[in-house]
Amino acid sequence: MAIKTVIITGANGNLGTTVVKKFLRNGYRVVATVMNESMRDAFDRHEHLEVCPVDLANEKDTAVFVSNTISKYKTVEAALMLAGGFDAGDIAKTPSADLLKMLTLNFETAYHVARPLFEHMKQHNIGRLIFVGARPALDASAGKNMVAYALSKSMVIKLAELLNADAKGKNVTATVVIPSTIDTPPNRKSMPNANFDDWVKAEQIADLMEIICSETGNPLRETVLKIYGNA
């Protein structure tokens, strides 16, 4: 059986490192993107891991990266768009510059990867695109105090819906996983009084992402997958 190739962006983040390890353990070839050359050292060497510094905010650079990956491995069966950022602020504290920053970090970095890959996947009639959404994008009461972040993530959700409409009838799907609070060291530090047991573990998210990309996940057609736990 041929090895599957998956692109994972934001691979050096708290979620990304866990997801990379999960997919390598399950026999995937992982092409991981990081922001710069120095971040390569964050990964242990593995025969099926390729780490690529890519400026995902640059559409041309990202298109070259995707094209080179396809040329090298012939098919890319999945892409997990984990790169992104966060910013808080209600509408009074959110100038357009802050909004544009969040759109670049959360939407454009995903769009620049998904757009060329989607066409490749449709041609081969196989592909899984996984995005990371956010609860505030679905819940206005939560999003009102993080306007730029919520708006940028809502665009990610709409993108996945549009891709699914385009690929209807094909074995190509777009899924947005929406976790509640992820149990990471930075989140524990910033919310020391929270009940960590209610939070979602990065390993749980990685497991679900792998299921989506596996044969088991073939029947799934729901755009939004809420991973809230008890939070």
Q: Topology of this protein?
A:
Layout: E1 5-9, H1 14-25, E2 29-34, E3 49-53, H2 59-73, E4 78-81, H3 96-124, E5 127-132, H4 140-143, H5 147-166, E6 172-179, H6 185-190, H7 202-213, E7 224-227
Parallel strand pairs: 1-2, 1-4, 2-3, 4-5, 5-6, 6-7
Helix pairs in contact: 1-7, 2-3, 3-5
Helix run count: 7
The fourth-level CATH homologous superfamily is NAD(P)-binding Rossmann-like Domain
Bin the helical content.
40-55%
CATH architecture call: 3-Layer(aba) Sandwich
Describe this structure in words.
The protein has 231 residues and is an alpha/beta fold. The chain has one domain: NAD(P)-binding Rossmann-like Domain (Rossmann fold), CATH 3.40.50.720. The radius of gyration is 17 Å and the shape is globular.
Output the keywords.
231 residues, globular, alpha/beta, Rossmann fold
